[in-house]
Specification:
The complex is a heterodimer. Chain A is of the alpha/beta class. Chain A has 19 helices and twelve strands. In chain A, strand 4 and strand 5 form a beta hairpin. In chain B, helix 3 packs across helix 14, helix 5 packs antiparallel against helix 11 and helix 13 packs antiparallel against helix 14. The chains are: A alpha/beta, B mainly alpha.
Chain lengths: ~425, ~350
């Protein structure tokens, strides 16, 4: 059960390069039988920069020291490079022993292709130590395929100083109050919301949250299963979003703006030029980096959850977000799962959370969060009754991208609420 | 049959053409030994040619032909690209879907607009500047370098540069407009779905006209001075000399440059991807961008391959048609000489 040897990696790479996805003989993986004593675990992760890169390395070193004969070979890749490289590898029918996943539709396709391993039984003794919301994106039909290492949620990050300037004393808890907030900000000459329209995914958060609030989580799940998004609640979600869009709440030229680039969504927030953005737990970091300021807007930045929608079927505490997990390849040795158990124990989890890179996935590690803003996200997440994975991850990739595309058109004013649900349904039926 | 020795070695081996084989058989009957020696020489030439061609041919087959064949094959499947070769055969379904896909039909339309704009604006501009820079003037070499410089930049750098130039709030473009008092012309260049294609064309022109300019400059310098002088003596004015002497003699260069501009517009990808990702609302999307979206974002690899097959077909039909009907007179010499030698 030795994983890829160097020669077969080279062969695979050559085959993938030359034939562009033609199946290779043997499919790498478990073809070779090595000595039982020495095992290699191929680990592909995307924490290719500080602070997590050295932390993962240190944990791997520690594990190898405790388990002689086990070698952990780490490949750390940048996000987009990882996706491209993994796609090429999987087309040859092979997969690393431990690999990064966001769960949802892509993982589902990897499972269907027989590439990812069902680890339900392997982790059963200790899965109870993890928070349920963090494991949920990797569960299909009661089976678990990955161990989480990060979880978070999307909500409104807002500029307290700008809110005060517009005379707003409380953060809105209902959609009507939210629209009022936007109007007040606009009246005060402040750009209410920063949005990176070029990237599309930040826009889909609005429709997704509204669909959760109006239709509820079970309806979203059912819609995915039935490939039908035409229920009146989804149209209503679009109508609610249209109410917001009609207020013209976004910055000038938002359709061409990116998310994390200079002059993009995060940079506007970090520069104090917009009052709000709907974004995940990573927002403060990106605001700081994209705006080129030492600490963004610093203490003026705070978080409030997405407001409730009057008369909606969804629980107002339901959280929308996602995280990261490590899935296990089909030919991985048992030590791979054991290693995942090792990095997920409370001590190691505290080390990871202390870096500020991730939110805790192990119960009881919350106290290791040093950053106050991240702590507030963690608190909201703890209160959540239900959890919905990003729609562009939860559904098959084509459906997820269609949600992004159609919602972008709704925000741009070229599609109506009904047409959005029709377009998504059409793509879903085509799967 | 009286080709000089050097030429006969370079021309394709006689045995390849049925007519030649018959001719040389007839010749063998008549002439015997000298002809056999010639055939042996030709065979040796054939071996040499094969040996020299083989490495390039193998690479060409593996890197160019095989991917095309595999793409064409997988375009007949509904396939997400995972786990070995596809199994869900759908025939020409992907192609039927393609021609009902509003985005793809829009790609064709936008591609056509870009091609027409390139031919009507970009190439004449390049020609005008090339002729201008052919005049004697101070700092001519510097101007040539400056105009050619954008072509040397990579597409990605160009695109990143122009996202800054076109930034609605801090961008150079709007800043310049406001400095000269044209505030009302300031626009959201890349954020307006109806404007973005023309902003893209502006960037394309900035990036590629220098390349065409260099082609024209080289072509212009290949025109013998005597001809323009003769035209001058005959009393042709500057415009007439251009119209009746320079332009016709630049014909071959212009035809090649048109060819490159059209093929470039059909395959346009990296510039668009970094600049706008095809948006907003598909306003600047090209065929290649749609293909990438479908293949790498939506994991519809079969469908994406159908797009790539259509792209290859469009390029191929254009290239062959263009060579057959337009480039014919330019290549005529090269081909007819060989035909005459038979």
């Amino acid at each position: 059960m030795i994983s890829l040897g160097r020669r077969s990696v080279a062969l695979l790479a050559a085959a993938a390069l030359l034939l562009g996805g033609c199946a290779s003989e043997g499919g790498g993986g478990g073809g070779e039988t090595g000595q039982a004593a020495s095992k290699t675990i191929e680990w592909w992760h995307i924490q290719n920069i500080e602070p997590m890169l050295p932390v993962w390395q240190a944990l791997a070193d520690e594990y190898q020291k405790a388990h002689p004969g086990v070698t952990i070979k780490i490949t750390a890749l940048e996000n987009e490079a990882y996706k491209a490289k993994l796609t090429t590898l999987t087309q040859s029918g092979s997969i690393p022993d431990i690999f990064n996943t966001w769960g949802g539709g892509v993982l589902q396709q990897q499972i269907d292709a027989g590439l990812a391993k069902d680890i339900t039984a392997d982790i059963a003794p200790w899965v109870g130590t993890l928070t349920p919301a963090s494991v949920q994106p990797y569960q299909f039909d009661g089976k678990t395929y990955a161990v989480p290492f990060d979880v978070g949620m999307v909500g409104f990050w807002y500029n307290k100083a700008l809110f005060a300037k517009a005379g707003i004393s409380e953060t809105p808890t209902t959609w009507t109050a939210f629209l009022d907030t936007v109007k007040k900000l606009k009246a005060a000459g402040i750009t209410p919301i920063a949005l990176g329209g070029k990237d599309k995914w930040p826009g889909h958060y609005y429709w997704a949250y509204l669909a959760m609030r109006v239709a509820g989580l079970p309806a979203l799940k059912q819609a995915g299963a039935d490939a039908t998004f035409t229920a009146p609640e989804f149209v209503q979600a679009g109508e609610r979003l249209k109410e917001l869009v009609d207020l013209d709440p976004f910055q000038k030229g938002f359709l061409g703006a990116g998310y994390g680039v200079p002059d993009g969504q995060a940079a506007l927030m970090g520069g104090g030029k917009a009052a709000m953005e709907l974004m995940g737990q990573w927002a403060p970091t990106v605001q700081r980096d994209a705006s080129g300021t030492p600490d963004g807007i610093g203490e003026d930045l705070a978080f409030f959850p997405f407001p409730a929608v009057e008369g909606g079927k969804g629980d107002p505490s339901d959280a929308f977000g996602g995280g990261g997990g490590f899935a296990v390849g089909k030919d991985a040795p048992p030590e791979a799962v054991d290693f995942l158990k090792f990095i997920s124990n409370l001590d190691n989890q505290r080390k990871v959370v202390a870096t500020g890179a991730f939110l805790p996935i192990v119960k009881g590690a919350e106290d290791a969060i040093k950053d106050e803003k991240l702590a507030s996200v963690s608190t909201e997440l703890g209160k959540a009754a239900g959890f919905q994975l990003y729609l562009d991850q939860a559904y098959p990739p084509a459906v997820g991208q269609q949600v992004n595309d159609s919602v972008a058109e709704l925000i741009a004013g070229t599609l109506g609420p009904k047409e959005v649900t029709d377009a998504i349904t059409e793509t879903a039926q085509n799967q | 049959m009286s080709a000089p020795k050097g030429v006969s070695e370079l021309s394709p081996p006689a045995g390849e053409r049925p007519g030649d084989a018959a001719a040389s058989r007839a010749a063998t009957k008549e002439a015997g030994t000298p002809d056999r020696r010639r055939r042996r020489e030709r065979r040796r030439g054939w071996v040499t040619i094969t040996l020299f061609l083989l490495p390039a041919l193998v690479l060409f087959c593996l890197l160019v032909l095989a991917p095309i064949v595999i793409a064409a094959y997988t375009s007949l499947f509904k396939w997400n690209g995972l786990g070995g070769l596809p199994t869900d055969f759908v025939g020409l379904d992907n192609f039927v879907r393609l021609f009902e896909d509003k985005v793809f039909l829009g790609d064709l339309q936008r591609g056509l607009i870009l091609i027409v704009l390139s031919l009507v604006i970009q190439l004449p501009l390049a020609l005008a500047i090339a002729l201008l820079l052919n005049q004697r003037m101070r700092g001519r070499a510097l101007y040539r370098v400056v105009f050619f410089a954008p072509y040397v930049l990579s597409e990605v750098i160009t695109a990143v540069l122009f996202t800054m130039v076109f930034s609605p709030t801090r961008g150079l473009a709007n800043h310049i407009l406001s400095l000269v008092g044209l505030d009302n012309l300031a626009a959201t260049w890349l954020a307006d779905p109806s404007l973005v294609l023309y902003s893209l064309f502006l960037v394309m022109t900035w990036k590629y006209f220098g390349f065409h300019m260099i082609l024209y400059l080289a072509g212009r310098q290949g025109i013998p001075k005597e001809l323009t002088e003769a035209a001058e003596i005959d009393g042709a004015s500057g415009w007439k000399a251009f119209w009746y002497v320079t332009l016709p003699l630049l014909g071959p260069t212009i035809r090649i440059s048109v060819f490159l501009a059209v093929i470039g517009a059909i395959q346009l990808f990296d510039l668009v991807w970094v600049l706008t990702e095809g948006g907003p609302i598909h306003g600047s999307e090209t065929m290649a961008v749609t293909m990438f979206q479908q293949g790498f974002k939506r994991y519809q690899v079969g469908y994406a391959n159908a797009i790539s097959v259509v792209m290859v077909l469009i390029s191929l039909v254009f290239a062959l048609g263009y060579q057959r009907y337009v480039l014919r007179r330019d290549t005529e010499g090269a081909i007819t000489v060989m035909r005459d030698q038979r």
